[in-house]
Amino acid sequence: MERVCFLIRVKPEHMDEYKRRHREVWPEMLQALSDTGWHNYSLFLREDGLMVGYFETPDLEAARSGMAALEVNSKWQAEMLPYFAEIEPGKRPDESFMRLEEVFHLD
Question: Which pTM value belongs to this model?
Fold first, then answer.
């Protein structure tokens, strides 16, 4: 299982709404994540908007490409785009996170 940790920035003025939206993630989006290999997925948000994400997957590229092929993901990413800072034009939030290198894991 590959462990993935990433950073992305939420605009501070949208943090409350972003958190609210994640309390109400669409059931079909949750199912799509699970079906495409996103497991033990967590998001952590700092008060300045820095978000740390973590998930486990058997294959990161397969998990990302599996989600990219789904209409529910396209809709979710389009709705989430305004909440994020520093997203390159033409990219979705799920294409823009900065992955962190794992340097230690206590198994």
Answer: 0.90
Tell me the C-alpha distance between 41 and 5, whole Å: 10
Domain ranges of the chain: 2-100
84 - beta bridge partners? 10
Residue-wise pLDDT for 1-20, tens only, equals 999 999 999 999 999 999 99
Q: What residues are labeled active site?
A: 22
Fold topology of 2-100 = Alpha-Beta Plaits (3.30.70)
What b/e sequence results for 14-33 when a residue is b if at least 16 CB atoms lie within 10 Å of its CB, and e otherwise?
Answer: bbeebeeeeeeeeeeeeebb
